[in-house]
Amino acid sequence: xxxxxxxxxxxxxxxxxxxxxxxxxxxxxxxxxxxxxxxxxxxxxxxxxxxxxxxxxxxxxxxxxxxxxxxxxxxxxxxxxxxxxxxxxxxxxxxxxxxxxxxxxxxxxxxxxxxxxxxxxxxxxxxxxxxxxxxxxxxxxxxxxxxxxxxxxxxxxxxxxxxxxxxxxxxxxxxxxxxxxxxxxxxxxxxxxxxxxxxxxxxxxxxxxxxxxxxxxxxxxxxxxxxxxxxxxxxxxxxxxxxxxxxxxxxxxxxxxxxxxxxxxxxxxxxxxxxxxxxxxxxxxxxxxxxxxxxxxxxxxxxxxxxxxxxxxxxxxxxxxxxxxxxxxxxxxxxxxxxxxxxxxxxxxx
Length: 350
Description:
57% of the residues lie in helices and 7% in strands. It has helices spanning 4-19, 40-43, 50-66, 70-86, 96-113, 118-130, 151-163, 167-181, 210-224, 229-245, 263-277, 281-300, 329-349; strands at residues 20-21, 31-32, 149-150, 190-194, 203-208, 302-304, 307-309. Helix 1 (4-19) runs antiparallel to helix 3 (50-66).
């Protein structure tokens, strides 16, 4: 019988064993391969999914918090180095959500391993400051050259600003999300707002993703820690909305492969944060969502060479031959992220 700590360790071993490799055979580097089994293009990192690597880094930090070792601290450093090199020896790119995720991971990595990431985090934070515009009341852009403003960019940016002590900017971003993206009827967070330069009225994208709920929840929890009760109320509303609409049978819904593979894992991460830091019944609801999802994810995983392989839908058994989405690094990271979230709850309860 595996306990939640052992499950997280097995998930780590499975993901790293299948996906982690050197960048172009360069010593002292690491990078996650996009898929498994790998074609040559995956082994050579011909495709570049910057934000997937940020979440791999975040998962390694989770694991280091769970069971610190010098070897894993070295992997954290090697992965950060690999990202920088593969990204043409710079930290920035054209997507503000990507940069927010990498800054969050590097900021956590510094706290856990002692590595010096101040310059990188400062550079990335400056990019996020520059992404703010006053059109439609504020908010930051999703990427350069567009006025589309969405939850996937604004949420992690708000979390980062709050953790860096830039509370006013964090609150301004989260207030904009509350006013423009939160559905007053259900409490769910819509994807984003399309803003047109030709004078047409802005158009709300009403798509609902688990990702958007997670990052808004994370921002609310960070801001509530600054002792403003309205943020706690908003976090509670989001947790209740997720439980009612996005977790059939108590299991967070899947979002397929590719980028979507990461979405439920991101929500699980911030539900665990909420469960540990919020008061009252909502904390229990958040914890139950994480634990129920983790049980389903673990028991519905396939075993390949003795290690778990997670499916894109945690509520359904993964059958072999497994679907294409199960090959993706994102899907496997999401399962690992979920199991680390459950392990974190277990440690907090002791």
